[in-house]
Write a structure and sequence with these properties.
The protein is of the alpha+beta class and 359 residues long. The protein has two domains: 185 residues, Cathepsin B, Chain A (Alpha-Beta Complex), CATH 3.90.70; 141 residues. The protein has eleven helices and eleven strands. The strands form two sheets. Strands 1, 3, 4, 5, 6, 7, 8 and 9 form an eight-stranded antiparallel sheet that branches. The protein has a three-stranded antiparallel sheet with strand order 2-11-10. α2 crosses α8, α8 runs antiparallel to α9 and α9 runs antiparallel to α11. The chain starts with a strand and ends with a helix.
Length: 359
């Protein structure tokens, strides 16, 4: 153990890196690339289950709907299966005191030891925090015996931070951030990468409609999303358009537009890459027509967002134009119809995957 170690050349994790917008698979690919593995972003988001996720809080407009930890039946599973799918051992340390049905917990000294041990071994750490919300980021170095951390966050460009010459953020206030909740390691290679036989159960489990606590998930989330849009009352709409002298408060910050935008971002990133994954399988296995049929259905979801929902909202942004469009009931009714189209496509994809698994 040393007092300072900084890994050079860890690929930057940011929104849009590798063509993706989901933090964990972005970080998974960046760390894998650094370790010398060849990893496609489409495979990363499919393997961890995030490509098939969709959740909607049925009790409120919730900016946390797209949290990858809602993809499966337990919070750790997307991270565990994302790393194990690469054939690597998985180790994770969760912060002590987090009431999240988690298997283990750690104090500050445990975190320091974990982080230093991995970085001293030449391996970047994937973290949840400490910059911004508890989304995935990368720790690429430490100073002061671990009291200061360096790395990449997808949110660092929006905060005033000290930066290393590599571009890494530098922080010595990481333990005071309650959104820093866990760290995980890509361990040694222990076996082959997952194939379709291991990925199908992941996809089916994420896509199946069900209610877990406050969240409708999978196919059921479509119904909850549509119901929320059509049931929005005057207080929701007033907030969404900045009434009452708040005309400057657009910039994607109001909760209704954020939830709408997060839903479409989640689906287009996930289903587009699920489509790519199954298209690749179809090319490699021309005797199995189900791969192409599954890819087609996931492609319908992505295409509906790109060509229909973005059009009716006048763009993919979350600014004043989009907020004003979303206020109009006729816009929300149109979106409700497109939600039905996407739900039907996902439902067909689910049935086809279940047929494929049975074969």
């Amino acid at each position: 153990m040393s007092d300072e170690k900084i890994l050079r050349g860890v690929p930057k994790a940011y929104y849009g890196a590798f063509g993706g917008i989901t933090p964990f698979p972005i970080c998974l690919k960046a760390v894998s690339d650094y370790l010398g593995d060849e990893l496609d972003y489409a495979y990363a988001i499919v393997a961890c289950g995030a490509a098939f996720r969709f959740a909607w809080n049925t009790t409120e407009w919730d900016g946390g709907n797209v949290d990858i930890m809602l993809a499966c039946d337990d919070n750790e599973r997307p991270f565990r299966q994302g790393i194990e799918a690469l054939g690597r051992d998985f180790t994770m340390l969760w912060r002590e005191g987090r009431d999240m049905r988690l298997p283990c917990s750690g104090k500050k000294e445990d975190f320091k030891s974990f982080i230093k041990g991995q970085i001293d071994a030449g391996k970047p750490v994937i973290s949840l925090g400490p910059i911004g919300p508890c989304e995935a980021g990368i720790l690429a170095g430490y100073r002061d015996g671990g009291d200061t951390l360096l790395g990449w966050s997808l949110f660092q460009d929006w905060e005033k931070l000290d930066l290393h010459e590599e571009g890494y953020f530098i922080t010595d206030a990481w333990w005071g951030d309650n959104d820093f909740i866990g760290v995980m390691a890509l361990g040694d290679i222990a076996g082959p990468r997952w194939g379709i036989e291991q990925i199908l159960p992941v996809a089916i489990a994420a896509l199946e409609g069900r209610q877990e606590g406050r969240h409708a998930k999978g196919l059921a989330a479509y119904d909850a999303w549509k119901a929320a849009l059509l049931a929005a009352d005057e207080s929701d709409l007033a907030l969404a358009v900045g009434d009452g002298g708040n005309e400057g408060m657009f910039d994607g910050m109001n909760i209704m537009m954020m939830c709408q935008g997060d839903a479409t971002d989640c689906l287009i990133d996930g289903r587009k890459n699920a489509c790519k994954y199954f298209q690749r399988l179809a090319q490699e296995n021309p005797d199995q027509p189900l791969y192409a049929e599954i890819a087609e259905q996931f492609g319908i979801v992505a295409k509906t967002i790109h060509e229909r929902i973005y059009k009716v909202l006048r763009g993919y942004q979350r600014g004043k134009k989009q907020v004003r469009a979303l206020k109009k009931r006729r816009t929300r009714v149109k979106i409700g119809g497109y939600i039905d189209v996407m739900r039907a496509a996902d439902e067909k994809a689910l049935a086809l995957m279940e047929e494929l698994m049975a074969r």
